[in-house]
Amino acid sequence: MSEPEQGALRLGTRRSQLALAQSGQVADEVSRLTGRPVELVEITTYGDVSREDLAQIGGTGVFVTALREALLKGDVDFAVHSLKDLPTAQPDGLVLAAVPEREDPRDVLVARDELKFTDLPRGARVGTGSTRRTAQLNSYARAHGMSVEVVPVRGNVDTRIGFVRSGELDAVVLAAAGLNRIGRAEEVTDFLSVDMVLPAPGQGALAIECRAGNTSHDSDLIAALGELDDPYTRAAVTAERSLLAALEAGCSAPVGALADLPPLSASLERGDPHADEQIVKEMRLRGVVGTTDGSTLVQLSTTGPVPETYDQAMALGRVLAAEMLAKGAAGLMGERAL
Q: What are the catalytic residues?
């Protein structure tokens, strides 16, 4: 690998349009904080080159392993991941230096003829690469007398939306955050309420990872990156990932989770411009796991004080996981990757 320009920090990123967009945004912030240029180093991961379904290749880590190897070898100084792609176990030698403020965590529909999900005709073909979405969409359709066929798709945003534009599919389901970050939010035809489809644990959040402070360079970088950390987002995603870990499920399993601040979340969805001025003292964690045909879902929630420490956030997730396991969640995760 060629030497970086003098003084430049090297940011490891996947090569996709979305990864480059979100890494570029982080690079600008890090450059502003440190006064140093940031060079993007594009790295191909196994998940980028494999065309298999994520559930088949074991989604856990397929998009992050190559980036982490580059970090540990010293080829890059830090890396940016979509947090929902990270395995729940943190590897030795690396630290999650920052979790910036979360984007919209919801899933969205991009459908032909501006259709919303509830307007889809009988037999409509809906594409997604996620067993979590498949389980919840099929469950919602069953409960509301709809008949849709949820079909597996892979590929980048252009590829997936292309299936709709070509008429091969009636709609695809994507993450709102991704479309927002690449400037394509205007193509969304329906925002799927989290009451309908809970997002993946960590969805909408980014993870900035670097080496664990073995040198003064690493320690200085950890301190600088820490300026980008958002405590509420970190507490929320820690609780969500604690739930995922306690269910012993990988990121390709049909598990949804969202930790939020209930009064604030409701105000934001209503578009209240003063929502962020509210003082909120409780965090709600919701979790769901189900069979992909939607015939069985275990969906529960718990509420507690907003976590002020890592251990408190972890405990919130473990409590809900225990309740879900007691309700039979373990038997619904045949696709899980341990």
A: 84-85, 132-133, 154, 160, 251
